[in-house]
Amino acid sequence: MFALRAYARSDAARLVYEGAPSPGLGPHDVLVRVHASGVSPGELDWPGAWLDHDGTPRMPPIVPGHEISGVVEAVGPDATGFAVADEVFGYTDVRRDGGDAEYVAVRADAGELAPKPASLTHVEASAVPLSALTAWQALFDHGDLQPGQAVLVHGAAGGVGTFAVQFARWRGARVVATSSERDRSFVSELGADVVIDYRGTRFEDAVPDVDLVLDTVGGETWSRSWDVIRPGGRLVSIAVPRPPERDDGDGRLAIWFVVRPDVGQLVEIGRLLDAGLVRSIVSDVLPLARGAEAYGPHARRSGPGKVVLAVAGG
Ligand SMILES: NC(=O)c1ccc[n+]([C@@H]2O[C@H](COP(=O)([O-])OP(=O)(O)OC[C@H]3O[C@@H](n4cnc5c(N)ncnc54)[C@H](OP(=O)(O)O)[C@@H]3O)[C@@H](O)[C@H]2O)c1
Questions:
Q1: 198 CB under 6 A from ligand 1?
Q2: How far, in whole angstroms, is CA 74 from its chain's centroid?
Q3: Which of 75, 127, 186, 245 has an alpha carbon 20 to 30 Å from 164's alpha carbon atom?
Q4: Span of the secretion signal (predicted)?
């Protein structure tokens, strides 16, 4: 098969489109013919993607791309719940080769795959699983966001941020968001009540205190966010590199987490998409052969949302 393979951590220049062995089908696996793969531009920096399950370093090359949409091609002898020709989407194990390839092997019993939302194309569906699960878990599992509360979403025009704004709005929260000036009106249309251009305005001067901050940026953005949290509120970060946890004993908490597969949440998110309550935002579609352009700090992106790699017809 053909795949995009990474030869070095944090180095998009060493992503190569080339022939690669097809993934082996374990007894509990399904083999998915990938139609489209969503890109997380920072994935080559993720420490977990460079480790095996036993914590030892993975030997490059590795195949990135852990949110996919495609069709089940084969089912392992001990795999249950899926059949050949099922249309699926999912967030696949970052410690195995991913979906920037014609085929990906996924454990059937790990909660990583769900039926593709029927109303979405493969391209649209592939922009959902990892980003939407991260946003969902940040707001609801770790942030405990309640209707009527206020949330600040940093990086609101990004892969995770576009879902976070929509989910928070759907839950009935007041949404304050940061984005670049270019994306401000788009983020407003998605449902943010207030959108702050992060380059032009210091958000802490413009934001009333909030119950929750979702930090997708880290660094200085993370530290400045602490001061806009109400007593009892939370600063939930997903940023890479990982900021510290913080608890000053005044009721505020800063935590960081890594998204986990959750098929129940994926099915619920699929229902919201099929009901038209939430949208998948795709900024660009590139052929797999040009996938390297979508990775790294200077990745190509012409607008809000995610870059998707079209693999088998999209
Ligand atoms: N811990 C986890 O489980 C987990 C899961 C998923 C993702 N992540 C990480 O979370 C981060 C976000 O992921 P993503 O997929 O949403 O990335 P993304 O699609 O690249 O989006 C990042 C967004 O942040 C904006 N941005 C950059 N600097 C900013 C600042 N100072 N203030 C406000 N916004 C800013 C960017 O806007 P401009 O391009 O206009 O500047 C962009 O729209 C990445 O580091 C990713 O690796 C972690």
A1: yes
A2: 26
A3: 245
A4: none
Ligand 1 mutation pick, 160, 221, 224, 298, max ligand atoms within 8 A of CB? 160
Ligand 1 neighbour 216 (Cβ under 6 A):
yes
The rounded distance, in Å, linking the Cα atoms of 223 and 246 is 10
In one-letter notation, the amino acid at residue 168 is A
| Cα 217 to middle of ligand 1, angstroms | 5
Q: Is 239 in the pocket of ligand 1 (CB under 6 A)?
A: yes
Q: Which atom of ligand 1 is nearest to the CA of 306?
A: 19
The atom of ligand 1 lying closest to the CA of 240 is: 45
List, in order, residues 6 or more apart from 176 with CB less than 8 Å away: 150, 151, 152, 153, 192, 193, 194, 195, 196, 203, 207, 208, 210
Does 314 have pLDDT greater than 60? no
- Nearest C-alpha neighbor of 66 from the set 106, 28, 30, 26: 106
DSSP annotation of 294? G
Ligand 1 centroid to Cα of residue 250, in Å, is 29
Does ligand 1 come within 6 angstroms of the Cβ of 133?
A: no
Give distance in angstroms: CA of 54 to centre of ligand 1.
Answer: 28
Q: For the chain, list the domains and their CATH numbers.
A: 2-128+280-310 (3.90.180.10), 130-256 (3.40.50.720)
Closest-CA residue, ligand 1 atom 40, reads 180
Cβ neighbours of residue 189 closer than 8 Å, sequence gap 6 or more: none
Q: What is the pLDDT of residues 13-39, one digit of tens each?
A: 999 999 999 999 999 999 999 999 999
Asked if the peptide bond before residue 129 counts as cis, ω within 30 degrees of 0, the response is: no
**What share of the chain in percent tops pLDDT 90?**
97
What's the whole-model pTM score?
0.97
Distances (CA, A) of 124 to 71, 117, 128, 161: 15, 10, 7, 16
Residue 126 tokens read as 């592939």
Does the beta carbon of 217 sit less than 6 angstroms from any atom of ligand 1?
yes
